């Protein structure tokens, strides 16, 4: 495993290379979720990288600009930039690995960034594996806001009248520009809300496997012709903190994604 | 002045991963460098990316900072013979200091820790004389006789006296009830962090030694655990009569939650750390003036 920075001096991105442990022609780019969800997802992405490398696949993890270990402040993260970062990471992965078949695996909002970047049809991109993409941006932002407000009241309302929930109810604009200590720019909010993400799954330029909560699958039937829809092997509450039992790895999901990505590389 | 971030792989068999943040163009060895270990099981970016933001701010102030993963957390791995959790953590911290010395030339270190990171900051300070300061957030809860009455009084103002008393009785019941088997197992993942508060006698002896060695300590308490830390001067009252009390800094910042889950909370704690760390820069400036004097 080799951690390093890639990209241009003005847009340096953290990346981590996992060399393949056997010969082959496939490589995988792992794209993380948004902000605070990165903590929950970190172990999953590391374990996936290690398992895929053992399966003879070269792997690169990376963080988009404004998130994780990459340069940039939270508020500089937006989907337009993230999309270009996926392409930068793709180029680096292709050059480093020398491999001719590349698969992208995007998790949560990282999957949305992969969907957008795939429209550029970079050379050697063979398939997408999208794990629990955000299909309703407005609902996602509302859910983050609801949880953020509830957390403030629960954590700090024990000894003082906080009433974050009341403030949120009275002022629709309150608590919109951050969630759990991560700033959310106006650009990112617009980019999340405006597209019909379900419709975007239909005309994907690259074949995709989409791993989703089982309940979301019926709503996509007939709308995602180029995508293979799969029920997630287990539910994961991504926006939550690390569970109290300290379980960092959703084991069934990790096994499912390892299989899907390995098959996609074949 | 802009800062630069570099990925570092270090320790036995390259088992540890961290990010070194330092000011561009700083050639001379700094007076101190800062280490930020993990907060619990959260990897090196810290709770809600706080460690990234703090490392950049410290570096801008001229303090190179390494935020890194302890062995077994984030991207760092266990290697070598098995040992106790505490020995592994201390070994990780020592090799991080070695890496900071190799990359920056610093020979004295300060450590900033949150939750289990605070315990690790304290423990490494006790055994490694290169440590000259430790900033510790949300650990080391020692009650005074006023802790519970103040808690109940403040709680009653929010929920009313009856509900405050009922809640207190329930909390007492939970403390006295024997733990079920499943509950003990559920904390197994955290047991590897070895992050329990030290016994009070041990803490007193250690802190007196650290203060005697000139190590600057700051203890900061947030507002997430009011039953454990309920008022500003609890630290003073809990250790009344101990010589170290006048020589350490302690603060109660009740509007900060444990995980620093708002930007305002992050800014407040960052300011507190920078203010504390500036003391080391001032010492450097004073030392330089002293050296230049005839």
Please explain how this structure is put together.
The complex is a heterodimer of chains A (266) and B (294). The mean pLDDT of chain A is 93. The longest helix of chain A has 20 residues, at 137-156. Helix content of chain A is 38%, strand content 20%. Chain A is globular and about 60 Å long. Chain A has an eight-stranded mixed β-sheet, with helices on both faces. Chain A has a two-stranded antiparallel sheet with strand order 7-8. Chain A has 266 residues and is of the alpha/beta class. Chain A has helices at 37-54, 79-97, 109-118, 137-156, 164-170, 186-193, 197-201, 251-265, and strands spanning 2-8, 11-18, 26-31, 58-62, 101-107, 125-131, 178-179, 182-183, 208-212, 227-231. Chain B is of the alpha/beta class and 294 residues long. Chain B has a single domain, classed as Alpha/Beta hydrolase fold, catalytic domain (Rossmann fold, 3-Layer(aba) Sandwich), CATH 3.40.50.1820. Chain B is built from ten helices and eight strands. Chain B has helices at 50-60, 85-104, 116-127, 147-159, 161-176, 181-186, 188-191, 200-212, 234-238, 263-292, and strands at residues 3-10, 16-23, 33-36, 65-68, 109-114, 131-137, 216-221, 249-252. In chain B, strands 1-2-4-3-5-6-7-8 form an eight-stranded mixed β-sheet, sandwiched between helices. In chain B, helix 1 runs parallel beside helix 10 (263-292) and helix 4 crosses helix 5 (161-176). The model of chain B is unreliable at 181-186 and 287-294 (pLDDT under 50). Chains A and B meet through strand 1, strand 2, helix 1, helix 4 and strand 8 of A and strand 1, helix 1, helix 4, helix 7 and helix 10 of B.
């Amino acid at each position: 495993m080799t951690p390093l920075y890639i990209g241009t001096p003005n847009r340096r991105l953290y990346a981590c290379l996992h060399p393949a442990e056997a010969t082959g022609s496939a490589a995988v780019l792992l794209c993380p979720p948004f902000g605070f969800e990165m903590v929950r997802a970190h172990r999953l992405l590391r374990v996936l990288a290690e398992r895929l490398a053992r399966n003879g696949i070269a792997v690169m993890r990376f963080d988009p600009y404004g998130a994780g270990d990459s340069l940039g402040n939270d508020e500089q993260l937006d989907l337009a930039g993230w999309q270009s970062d996926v392409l930068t990471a793709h180029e680096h992965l292709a050059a480093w690995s020398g491999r001719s078949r590349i698969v992208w695996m995007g998790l949560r909002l990282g999957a949305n960034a992969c969907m957008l970047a795939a429209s550029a049809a970079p050379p050697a991109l063979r398939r997408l594996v999208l794990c629990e993409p955000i299909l309703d941006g407005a609902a996602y932002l509302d859910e983050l806001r609801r949880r953020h407000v509830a957390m403030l009241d629960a954590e700090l309302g024990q000894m003082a009248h906080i009433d974050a929930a009341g403030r949120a109810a009275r002022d629709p604009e309150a608590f919109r520009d951050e969630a759990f200590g991560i700033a959310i720019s106006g650009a990112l909010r617009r980019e999340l809300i405006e597209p019909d993400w379900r419709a975007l799954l239909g005309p994907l330029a690259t074949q995709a496997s989409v791993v989703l909560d089982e309940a979301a699958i019926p709503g996509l039937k007939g709308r995602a012709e180029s995508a293979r829809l799969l029920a997630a092997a287990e539910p994961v509450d991504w926006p939550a903190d690390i569970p109290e039992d300290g379980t960092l790895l959703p084991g069934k999901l990790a096994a499912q994604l390892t299989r899907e990505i390995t098959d996609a590389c074949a | 002045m802009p800062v630069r971030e570099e990925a570092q792989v270090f320790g036995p068999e390259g088992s540890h991963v961290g990010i070194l943040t330092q000011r561009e163009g700083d050639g001379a060895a700094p007076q101190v460098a800062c280490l930020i270990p993990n907060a619990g099981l959260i990897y090196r970016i810290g709770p809600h990316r706080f460690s990234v933001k703090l490392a950049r701010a410290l570096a801008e102030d001229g303090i190179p900072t390494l935020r890194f993963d302890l062995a077994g957390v984030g991207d760092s791995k266990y290697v070598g013979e098995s040992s106790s959790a505490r020995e592994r953590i201390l070994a990780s911290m020592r090799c991080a200091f070695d890496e900071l010395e190799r990359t920056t030339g610093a020979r004295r270190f300060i450590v900033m820790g949150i939750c289990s990171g605070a315990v690790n900051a304290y423990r490494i300070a006790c055994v490694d004389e290169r440590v000259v300061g430790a900033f510790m957030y949300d650990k080391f809860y020692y009650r005074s006789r006023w802790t519970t009455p103040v808690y109940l009084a403040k709680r009653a103002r929010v929920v009313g006296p009856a509900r405050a008393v009922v809640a207190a009785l329930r909390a007492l019941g939970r403390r006295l009830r024997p733990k079920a088997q499943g509950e003990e197992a559920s904390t197994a993942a955290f047991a590897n962090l070895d992050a329990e508060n030290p016994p009070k006698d041990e803490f007193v002896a250690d802190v007196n030694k650290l203060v005697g060695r000139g190590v600057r300590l700051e203890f900061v308490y947030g507002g997430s655990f009011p039953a454990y830390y309920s008022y500003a001067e609890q630290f003073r009252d809990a250790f009344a009569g101990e010589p170290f009390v006048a020589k350490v800094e302690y603060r109660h910042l009740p509007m900060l939650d444990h995980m620093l889950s708002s930007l305002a909370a992050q800014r407040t704690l960052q300011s507190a750390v920078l203010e504390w760390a500036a003391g080391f820069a001032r010492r450097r400036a004073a030392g330089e003036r002293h050296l230049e004097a005839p």
